């Protein structure tokens, strides 16, 4: 299974030349990454604004995400 529902909202009134805008993305899914191979991509910001504590927090969050995926797939594999 994959994404079963998605919704994207973009506030185009706040987009300025060379500016930034926020995108809110909500997804709901019923993943089965043990029986249905799934590609997961993490994109990490290494720009100057992330130097120091923000980048260390980002790396810790990425590690935690990987650990969660690893633990949940290990539990599913051993339960079968």
Structure description:
With 80 residues, this protein is α+β, with helices and mostly antiparallel strands. The chain is built from 1 helix and 2 strands, in the order ββα. It has one helix at 53-79, and strands spanning 3-10, 23-29. The chain is flat.
Write the layout of secondary structure elements.
Elements: E1 3-10, E2 23-29, H1 53-79
Antiparallel strand pairs: 1-2
Strand content: 15-25%
Helicity level, as a percent range? 25-40%
Structural class designation: alpha+beta
Please give the number of β-strands. 2
Shape, per Cα inertia axes: flat
- Chain-averaged pLDDT: 76
Features of this protein?
single chain, 80 residues, alpha+beta, 2 strands
Q: What is the gist of this entry?
A:
This protein is of the alpha+beta class and 80 residues long. The chain contains 1 helix and 2 strands; from the N terminus they run E-E-H.
